[in-house]
Design brief:
Structural class: alpha/beta
CATH topology: Rossmann fold
CATH class: Alpha Beta
Radius of gyration: 17 Å
Largest sheet: 8 strands, mixed
Strand content: 15-25%
CATH architecture: 3-Layer(aba) Sandwich
Number of helices: 12
């Protein structure tokens, strides 16, 4: 069996499917049954340059012991929606809402990782009737960090305008940044296959969108149960920014996970129990 096959077998992945969202486009979705028809529903939103499977590979099976789990590839990522319009986080949030309506999900807990955190926050802001709770992982209320970050955001925008082909060496650099190693086995080949399917112009535009995102003015208005998973050794989203996010949210549950930004795949034995605990709290199973 290939490394890719081992990865999928260990995670117990059921087949995914393509769902058409009227007026928006088609996207890849995993819709996994929970322990009963009455189980709460989670919608998992992955991070920048990842896919649903890259981000949540080792989380699916433990979560389905408690919840129905829906995970999508965001627009421009993997097998997500393709659009000629500029990538925006607001469009991603609206895609999540449209998917929930298409699948008949009346209310869900939105779980966002890294870039998925802003998307989850925006789903609440733009579609409040849909959101019963939030779980925000390795993320922040803003990502700007002075002039250097502003310059980088402008550079990404310029590259997105010009780019049509991303060199292979760049793709490999991204693979290494989200490298999925477990028990000494490497899944780089499978991860590269996931990344090869990205729209790399959209990736650059997404990087710019993250840089300009801020929920500082309204995050304190959150009125749904929210858990914040803080990655304690995060070199991408500083831990202090994650704690500021948590401090801005009324009555947020804070759970610390020892690890770097990719701990969801490099340290699932630490990440997944905290994720399950946060989701159980946000959905009301443990409150």
């Amino acid at each position: 069996m290939t490394d890719a096959g081992r990865a999928r077998t260990e995670a117990g992945l059921a087949p995914g499917r393509i769902v058409e969202l009227p007026g928006r486009g088609s996207l890849f979705v995993r819709d996994l049954d929970g322990p009963s028809p009455a189980a709460p529903t989670l919608v998992l939103v992955h991070g920048w340059t990842a896919t649903a499977d890259l981000n949540w590979l080792f989380s699916y099976r433990p979560l389905t012991e408690h919840f129905r789990v829906v995970a999508l590839d965001l627009r421009g990522h993997g097998r997500g929606i393709r659009s000629r319009s500029r990538f925006t986080l607001e469009d991603c949030a609206d895609d999540v809402a449209a998917l929930c309506h298409e699948l008949g999900i009346g209310r869900a807990t939105i779980v966002g990782y890294s870039m998925g955190g802003p998307v989850a926050q925006l789903v609440w802001r733009r579609h409040r009737d849909l959101v019963g709770g939030l779980v925000l992982c390795a993320t922040a209320r803003s990502f700007a960090a002075g002039r250097a970050h502003e310059s980088r955001s402008r550079l990404l925008a310029a590259l997105a305008t010009a780019a049509r082909v991303v060199p292979a060496r760049v793709r490999w650099a991204v693979v290494r940044s989200v490298m999925t190693r477990r028990s000494g086995r490497s899944y780089e080949e499978w991860a590269l296959g996931q990344l090869e399917s990205h729209d790399w112009v959209a990736m650059l535009e997404a990087g710019r969108a993250i840089g300009w995102f801020s929920s500082r003015e309204w995050i304190g208005e959150l009125d749904v149960p929210t858990a914040v998973l803080v990655t304690s050794r995060d070199a991408i989203v500083p831990t202090r920014r994650q704690h500021r996010l948590a401090a801005s949210i009324p009555d947020a549950l804070v759970l610390e996970v020892e690890g770097d930004h990719d701990v969801c795949v490099t340290g699932p034995e630490r990440f997944v129990p905290a994720l399950v605990a946060g989701c159980r709290w946000a959905t009301g199973l443990d409150r």
